[in-house]
Amino acid sequence: MSSYHDDTLPLQPPIRLPGEATLATAVRAAPLAGELKPEGDDSEVLAAWAGHCRDLLAADGALLLELIRMFLTREPHQDEVPETLTGLGLVRQEEPYTLSWLGLWVARLMVAATTGQEVPVMGSFADGDAAALLHGLRSYPEAERDEELAGWLKGRDRDEAVAEIAAALATVSPLSRAIGVELLSTQFGDEGRLALSRHLEKRKLGAVIAARTGRTERQPAPDEIAWVLVDMAAALLEFGDEPGQVIESIALGMDAEEQAGTIPILAFGDHPWTGQVLRLFIDHHPDQRVSAAARKALRRLRGLADVRG
Questions:
Q1: Less packed terminus of the chain by CB within 10 Å, N or C?
Q2: Distance in angstroms (rounded) separating the CA atoms of residues 31 and 28
Q3: Where are the alpha helices (DSSP H) in the chain?
Q4: What does the alpha-carbon distance between residue 106 and residue 93 come to, in Å, rounded to a whole number?
């Protein structure tokens, strides 16, 4: 099973953007458009403007930081707005000095370039497959998630959609998998729950589904326990939870001595996120016995990886 993670920045909620034509119109109306002369069709104008913004913002780190701050906090600029931001059409020219549509669009590009995270845009997954949908939904609040799902389902056969989401569970990241299990459990009625039941006997994936849906009749095999623990911890890491919260969730009420005795089994789970989870214990667990056990488990994990080739 593959995974994906964003290390630099906690997952950001989706934004709403108008279509390409509206954004290109905003570019042509920007104060600096006469000087920078964006030409061509809408896509060419936007590509040229993105290049101008990258160049001008790269030349002034403070402006870039302010643009990203406004994007992440959704808070207006205080005091007088720098001329470059208003000239590029990125900030409203009257109070409140919030990012314009164009500003949101450019800031999203800058965040992707600097952190690697592509902040989702509402409505952009309608034509994508189930894996892309689940990946995009990782940072969606509940109301927006329902809206995005409804858009994705529009024009799709419901049974085929259920089957596609269920099939994607084995290939997506831990957090995407958790979202997929939740959607099938809560949004698709008996069809969704039946689709999950069909996967219960699958190794590793079935154990995760059982753990997340409370299917006590499906107990994990000994070699699946570590996989389930890592997968559930990895989903929290992927979302951007604080290390202490992730450690507490994995502890399951165990004291430090019990945790130190449990940590070694994680090395045998063959989960792609095992190394990251162990490093979390090494770097952030307050008890030296647990961090020492995690260091030993990480060495064993690397040794097993060499053996497996």
A1: C
A2: 8
A3: 20-29, 33-36, 42-58, 61-73, 83-87, 101-115, 130-136, 142-153, 158-168, 174-186, 189-198, 205-213, 222-239, 243-251, 256-262, 274-284, 288-308
A4: 17
Helix (H) or strand (E) holding 16: none
Backbone angles phi, psi at 57, to 5 degrees: -75, -35
Cα 234 from Cα 189, distance rounded (Å)? 27
d(CA 109, CA 258) in angstroms, rounded, equals 46
What count of other Cβ atoms lies within 10 Å of the Cβ of residue 248? 13
198 sits in the region (left: phi over 0; alpha: psi -120 to 50; else beta) called alpha
pLDDT tens across the length of the chain (309 residues): 333 344 568 899 999 999 999 999 999 999 999 999 999 999 999 999 999 999 999 999 999 999 999 999 999 988 888 999 999 999 998 889 999 999 999 999 999 999 999 999 999 999 999 999 999 999 999 999 999 999 999 999 999 999 999 999 999 999 999 999 999 999 999 999 999 999 999 999 999 999 999 999 999 998 899 999 999 999 999 998 889 989 988 887 899 999 999 999 998 888 999 999 999 999 999 999 999 999 999 999 988 766 555
| Angle between helix 243-251 and helix 222-239 axes, rounded to 10 deg | 160
Q: Concatenate the DSSP letters of all residues of 83-138 into one string.
A: HHHHHTT-B-SSSS--B-HHHHHHHHHHHHHHHS----BTTTTTTS-HHHHHHHGG
39 φ/ψ angles, rounded to the nearest 5 degrees? -130, 160
Map tokens 């989706």 to a residue. 14
Token couple for 232: 């559930």
Tell me the CA distances in angstroms from 207 to 87, 176, 187, 236, 244, one per residue in order. Answer: 55, 16, 21, 18, 25
